[in-house]
Write a structure and sequence with these properties.
Rieske Iron-sulfur Protein; binds FE2/S2 (inorganic) cluster; 33% strand; 211 residues
């Protein structure tokens, strides 16, 4: 015959005390305590957000110079073989290809500008920025027939500014506020022409490097 016990039969003196490890019998947190806990959690999250803001700005500032250097201006860039330049000083236009870094991506051979090169001797080359000092349009090299003569010159088609082959303005009143910008650091090494490429501000009477 099966014997059944009541719970009170198992506890001494018949007291119906809850056992300490009986989870179902633990009391819930009071409402005030839960509110206090939530407030503390929100305050902690606000502090983390406030702390990470300046840290993020510092990290961005740390990497910004690397990004600017990645534009590759200001470094010597190999432009063209010396032999590819006409010996009579006729200008030739070349792209400047350099490594460009944009945030986390590196582009190995990106065009970052253009230059005119003129060979003025066995080992002498001069370089000009192609960007017009007026508003930055691309200057062209043109040969113009004037009577029996062929005039060689630089010409900006945007506002019809004319320059001679040394980059000097030739119009009585020119739209360009200054002569063409020369790139003063040019070197020849192992039969190649290298130029330290720079950009300059437009619209100013003096040549100012754009950084
Ligand atoms: S942009 Fe060259 S003359 Fe205006």
């Amino acid at each position: 015959m099966e014997t059944r016990f009541r719970r009170s039969d198992l506890i001494p003196n018949g007291e119906d005390k809850p056992m300490a490890d009986d989870i179902s019998l633990r009391p819930e947190l009071p409402v005030e305590e839960r509110r206090g806990f939530l407030k503390k959690l929100l305050a902690l999250l606000a502090w983390i957000a406030a702390y990470l803001g300046p840290v993020g700005a510092a990290v961005r500032a740390f990497f910004a110079p690397a990004r600017q250097k990645g534009q590759a201006t200001g470094q010597f860039t190999r432009v063209a073989p010396l032999d590819s330049l006409p010996e009579d000083g006729t200008p030739k236009k070349f792209p400047i290809l350099a490594q460009r870094r944009d945030a986390w991506t590196v582009y190995p051979n990106e065009p970052i500008g253009q230059v005119f090169l003129r060979r003025l001797g066995k080992e002498k080359v001069v370089a000009f920025q192609v960007k017009c000092p007026h508003m930055g349009c691309a200057i062209s090299y043109v040969e113009e027939k004037q009577g029996d003569e062929i005039v060689k010159k630089f010409y900006c088609p945007c506002h019809k500014a004319n320059f001679d082959l040394d980059g000097r303005r030739t119009d009585p009143v020119s739209e360009s506020p200054r002569d063409m910008d020369t790139l003063d650091e040019v070197k020849i090494e192992d039969g190649f022409v290298y130029v330290r490429f720079k950009n300059f501000r437009t619209g100013t009477p003096t040549k100012e490097e754009e950084i």
